[in-house]
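Subject: Protein entry, chain in single-letter code together with its fold tokens

Category: Structural biology, sequence-to-fold work with a learned token vocabulary.

Notation: Tokens come from a learned vocabulary of local backbone shapes, not from coordinates.

Start of record: The labelled sequence and token lines come straight after this line.
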Amino acid sequence: MGFDAKDYLNERKKVVNSALLEYLPPDKPQTKLLESVIYSIYPGGKRLRPVLCLAASELVCGNHDGALPLACAIEMVHTYSMIHDDLPSMDDDDTRRSVPTNHRVFGEAVATLAGDALLTDAFSLLAKKLPQNRVSSELALRAVSLLADAAGSKGMVLGQAFDLEMNLSLPSEEEVLNTYLLKTAKMITASVVGGATVAGAREDELRSLQFYSEKIGVAFQIKDDLLDSHNAADKGGENAQKHTYPSLLGINAAREKVFELTDQAIKNLAVFEKNPNPLKEIALWLSERDE
């Protein structure tokens, strides 16, 4: 039987959700802050970033045990970013994953604090749990550094700042791709390279995985834009003012770019002999998905 990427994603998503329930138990009495945190982190979406983290670990060492705390920390950072991105001062979104956004339910102040809590607690989780999962101090520090760099002022946060600027003037193709690299691909790279790092990957393997991650990260964002543009057309053109790769270069060019980047990413997995390779299958599925 062949490898089913969607089944793999669903099974690893269950692993991540179970671990998050362990790492983020509700307190008693439950505070409004924690209620807000739980609202956004459960049930979650595809859990793509943490699943990629687990997949990279499995590819390198055959299991994902050591990478599980990192996978959960990555999801916490990703959730914080979505809460903040949805705020009125940022993208001003009313819904996320078909439900009201956090600030629409809990208010802007509590939503902001929930994001702050998730970001901070993610690094607390790594400090406590990576050593318990027998990850060496050296590898744990490298993983923490990867995540911090990807999420901070040289990564995701900078990408979000560029994304806001793109809506004020017409960007070039290069500017759009650089924004996608920072806003989306940096966190995906931290997920893949981080998972491989705590699994003890060689330097040549890490270089290959970094290239793979950057390519699928940008491809993932372009694919999201394509899906959003299709949904917007169905709803009468909502969000047409946003400058995206498809809006600048057209639907066909965007589709071609997704497949081009995916092909480049997969070629960089040749260093790994495992077959089937979960990272390859996930990349193909991401390029072809319709959701």
Notes: The two ends are 24 Å apart (CA to CA).
